[in-house]
Every structure is written in C-alpha cells, then in structure tokens.
Amino acid sequence: MTFPQAPALPEEFDKLMRRMRLPYMRKAAPDVLATARAQRWDPAEVLRLLIAEEVVGESGRRDHATCALGSGASTPAPASQLPRNASR
Description:
This protein is mainly alpha-helical. It has a domain at 23-66. The protein has helices at 11-19, 23-39, 43-69. Helix 2 (23-39) packs antiparallel against helix 3. The radius of gyration is 19 Å and the shape is globular.
C-alpha cells in the first residue's frame, strides 16, 4: 500500500528552518503537518513533535560522532576553553 506524498513546506518556513539549521525538523515537517491537518491536532502538539524529532536526530548524530572517536577518546575542547598560553 502506498500513501500519498505530503505537500511541500511553504518556502518561508523551509528557509527559516534551513537558516536555523534544523535538518531533522525540516525532514519530518511535511508529514507531521499533513497528519496534523487531517487529524485536527492542537498546534502545541505539532510543535512538540517537531522539536522532539530534531532532538532525537541531533542526539543520534552526537552518539554516532562519539562512536567514531573510539571508546577512550573524547571530543576536543572548543578553542575558547583552551588556556591562553597553550603552546601550539
């Protein structure tokens, strides 16, 4: 069984999510919005679901990056946290 494809996001909404760097939310938004319209969801539920999708996607990306570094490695400290007199 195939389902109809969700309509594309409005251009302004897509631009805002690209600018804010929300790739997981942008990917999920067309289906979530189509379902929300069809089922008459509360707007707060739509926002909760889209934000949760972004959080899950970002945490998965971080977990993947941590695994790629190896079990004993940690992420390097940002330059702003390095001592000022550190030798390079």
